[in-house]
Amino acid sequence: MATPVRPLAVAFDVNETLTDLSPVAEAFTRLGLSGDDLRWWFAVLLRDGMALAASGGSACFADLAGVALDEVAVARGRDLAEGAAEEIIQAMGAVPVHPDVVPALDALASAGVAAYALTNGAAAFARRILDSAGVADRLVDILSVDTVRHWKPRPEPYRWAAGVAEVDPGRMALVAVHPWDTHGAATAGLLSGWANRTGRPYPAVFTPPTVTGPDLAGVVEQLLALDGP
Question: What is the reported pTM?
Fold first, then answer.
């Protein structure tokens, strides 16, 4: 295995990595569900998106969000009003970013390393969130898997992102809080940085990340400390 070298570009996952989805729990409560159902819903959404990706298909984030909400509502015995899924999406569009985002992006800028976002959602939607949070201008671009019509963790989105950044995959890093995402990046030939905000163990079934830190700033610090031209 080649020794990892300092990245020339870094891409960040968006949902949960850059953005704090916890306020969306209030929307679930307004719909008559539990705030705790947020994580269940998001897990179902990811499951279905990845199932489509594994079988060579794709669907837009908003459509998957509606399907996932229907599953949760039926399991909870709730009959949701029309427009419930749109209310959840609207709530997602108003979430803040985590406190560690700005320090991480500033560290990359100071080091002359290009920063990108790479989302399984729509680029325009992610841009609105990040622009409202005042961090969009710290990113070279906000990239969506919609362009390659395959969700992460398939290899196509990661390699395409490296192509957009005009760097070899081995000189680009993907940073995320999701082990499945860092695993996908690693298997596509990218460097990977896992931000372990919760202190959970990294799943042994996945390819280990290049670096691990307690937050985004810690991950970026370790990536910048790698040797390389």
Answer: 0.95
